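From: lab user (bench 3)
To: helpdesk
Subject: output format question, protein + C2G

Hello, I'm new to running complex predictions and I'm not sure whether the block I got back is the full result or only part of it. Here's what I submitted:
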Amino acid sequence: MKKVITYGTFDLLHWGHINLLRRAKEMGDYLIVAISTDEFNRLKHKEAYHAYEQRKLILEAIRYVDEVIPEETWDQKIEDVQKYDIDTFVMGDDWAGEFDFLKPYCEVVYLGRTEGISTSLIKNELGGK
Ligand code: C2G
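Helpdesk reply: Thanks, we reran it on our side. This is the complete output you should expect:
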């Protein structure tokens, strides 16, 4: 069984996230999503609208997602790849190159981001209303 992993906040879930998750799942048989905890989001200087438990609940309802685990630190990825026996690590290409240190442990794939949508765009556009 080919196992894939990806990481993110996945706040205000939108079609850009779904495009990423669908393509990630297409790369294997089992997709694990490591979703950023609220504490880790603070380290990323991000504040999610939905709290961790709600973002996790939403992700678990997506057909492409087989398992959701917490992302708590920047440096858990090597351990995760080994612990979950991961074959492929996938991220959007806004992260291109950032996770090449994983190449000795698994395949590293950066997928094209979906243009025209982002959580911050949604927040900004709704902000005024
Ligand atoms: N994404 C995308 N297209 C968009 C928006 C997001 O392909 N229009 C992808 C991102 O590239 C990322 C995933 O969807 O791979 C989740 O996006 P975020 O929740 O913004 O993730 P981020 O905050 O970048 O967290 O350790 C890695 C970090 O946790 C990544």
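A quick orientation on your result: Strands lie at 3-8, 30-36, 67-71, 88-92, 107-111. Let us know if anything else is unclear.
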